[in-house]
Fructose-1,6-bisphosphatase, cytosolic (Rhamnella rubrinervis), 341 residues
Amino acid sequence: MDHAADAYRTDLMTITRYVLNEQSKYPESRGDFSILLNHIVLGCKFVCSAVNKAGLAKLIGLAGETNVQGEEQKKLDVLSNEVFVKALISSGRTCILVSEEDEEATFVKPSQRGRYIVVFDPLDGSSNIDCGVSIGTIFGIYTLKDAREPTLDDVLQPGKNMLAAGYCMYGSSCTFVLSTGSGVNGFTLDPSLGEFILTHPDIKIPQKGKIYSVNEGNAKNWDGPTAKYVEKCKFPNDGSSPKSLRYIGSMVADVHRTLLYGGIFLYPADKKSPNGKLRVLYEVFPMSFLMEQAGGQAFTGKQRALDLVPNKIHERSPIFLGSYDDVEEIKALYAAGENKE
């Protein structure tokens, strides 16, 4: 047994230790935020374990059919939603929850209420489960400004008001990426310890990337600036090499790669979806928050993504996010298009 190696493993920066270190920078902190994050992390560990068993689901009855006892088995996305709703309410630190799976916002009853609002997509990309592609959970946290009865207006805030955002990706490893407003850090689950360990401290996205990521199957419905930008990626007119196309079709996986390797991720509006496809509160905002914290940009085709004020909880928006210089290029194309009009 390698005792030296084992001793080293206890000196690791776990996510709990990281959050407590951050908390100690604010003497007035009561630890509420740390407790909330702990519950989110627990939800992610549970979903990670369930996702790993997904391939066996049909054999062991976890796939939406009825089991021998006549009990309804739950699909993974429904299960994940229940896991997070229960974990967040039981933290005693939340007042409103908005989930991609629920049509209405959940208002926590007064006896279990706290001052945080959590918006989340419990299992993004769940249609990819059966083919083993990375999927993930995305979340954003707002705070209730003053001690009063929470209303839906407290949720419909611009993304720049978010306190923290992150995602957990269930892939070849389980990765938890978090920003509390001062940089972005990545943690990887060590299954033998059951702990998330800091493996990607202070993530910074490259200033310019060599990858573009978009569903080109929608190309015939794109607007002018998007079509021009993608054309430029493939046939650059300045003598530079063309960009590589990488598109997984799972937002967490595509954004994770963009964050680490640089480049741009696009989900533009088109004739079929004039408002884009991705949801503002729990997809566009958290990912835009992380991108900006890592030194990148996020743009909707009209404005900075985090300045957008949603009117309803499941509102959609186009999004272009990634390396600073790459997003600048698409912004210039949209500005030129507006000037022509």
